[in-house]
Design a protein that fits this description.
The protein is of the alpha+beta class. The chain is built from 1 helix and 5 strands; from the N terminus they run βαββββ. It has a single domain, classed as 2,3-Dihydroxybiphenyl 1,2-Dioxygenase, domain 1 (Roll). A hairpin with a 2-residue loop joins strand 3 and strand 4.
């Protein structure tokens, strides 16, 4: 599985979802930050992740 890091998960989630990306739920707290899984056009499962800011 591949993970894409972002500094604003909610903004990226909203933008990608509006463009038709299929997510497995909404961003939620995961170890180390916030994350959400999604599927690309070819069926690959990917993650969008925003690390905690210290």
């Amino acid at each position: 599985m591949m993970m894409f890091e972002t500094d604003d998960i909610q903004s990226d989630y909203n933008r990608l979802q509006a463009q038709g990306v299929i997510f497995y739920g909404e961003p939620q707290t995961v170890p180390g930050g916030m994350g959400v899984g999604f599927k690309d056009l070819y069926g690959n499962e990917l993650d969008l992740f925003e690390p905690n800011k210290f």
